[in-house]
Amino acid sequence: DVQRSLVLVKPDGVRRGLSGEVLRRIEAKGYTLAAVELRTATPEILAEHYAEHEGKPFYAPLVEFMLSGPVLAVVIEGERCVEGFRSLAGATDPTVAAPGTIRGDLGRDWGAAVQQNLVHGSDSPESAAREIGIWFSDLT
Ligand code: CMP
């Protein structure tokens, strides 16, 4: 199945100059870029994007972190790219993420209240459709 997935290079990744490295890995894997936009999130966008995490202890620090600088919002496309990008990204905790993955190679624990783990990737085709609608309302 050719799928689309929403990828975000989070503020830590943009700040550290890793946007190009993340795009390079996506393209090297053979996925195509359907949309790429550098933008600053808003509380409204994040409330929708992270609706499932509302009420969790890391929710407020997560939103604050995601507002701390611009993010690179990316729509990727390819055969099974939702699962494929999750494997490229590695485990949520960058300390545990396997070497060879984006988080395993480039991330580490910064001791903050929230995992600054460089990237986000949709966790299912349904989430991808929902998230692409949030970040790129003109792209369906
Ligand atoms: P992401 O996959 O974008 O979606 C939710 C984010 O919340 C996750 O990446 C991490 O940045 C953060 N997160 C998830 N679980 C935890 C946790 N247990 N503690 C702190 N931050 C978390």
UniProtKB/TrEMBL annotation:
Cofactor list: Mg(2+)
Compartments it resides in: Cytoplasm
Binding site for ATP: K10, F58, R86, T92, R103, N117
Entry annotation: catalytic residues: H120 (pros-phosphohistidine intermediate)
Highest taxon, organism lineage: Bacteria
Reaction catalyzed: a ribonucleoside 5'-diphosphate + ATP = a ribonucleoside 5'-triphosphate + ADP; a 2'-deoxyribonucleoside 5'-diphosphate + ATP = a 2'-deoxyribonucleoside 5'-triphosphate + ADP
SMART domains on file: NDK
EC supergroup of this enzyme: transferase
Entry-linked SUPFAM superfamilies: Nucleoside diphosphate kinase, NDK
Keyword Amino-acid biosynthesis: no
InterPro entries: NDK-like_dom, NDK-like_dom_sf, Nucleoside_diP_kinase, Nucleoside_diP_kinase_AS
Main subcellular location: cytoplasm
Keywords: ATP-binding, Cytoplasm, Kinase, Magnesium, Metal-binding, Nucleotide metabolism, Nucleotide-binding, Phosphoprotein, Transferase
GO molecular function, one term: kinase activity
Residue ranges occupied by any Nucleoside diphosphate kinase-like domain in the UniProt entry: 2-139
EC number: 2.7.4.6
Presence of keyword Metal-binding: yes
UniProt cross-references to PANTHER family, sorted A to Z: NUCLEOSIDE DIPHOSPHATE KINASE (PTHR11349)
Family: Belongs to the NDK family.
Assembly and oligomerization: Homotetramer.
Function: Major role in the synthesis of nucleoside triphosphates other than ATP. The ATP gamma phosphate is transferred to the NDP beta phosphate via a ping-pong mechanism, using a phosphorylated active-site intermediate.
NCBIfam families: PRK00668.1
Protein name: Nucleoside diphosphate kinase
Gene encoding the protein: ndk
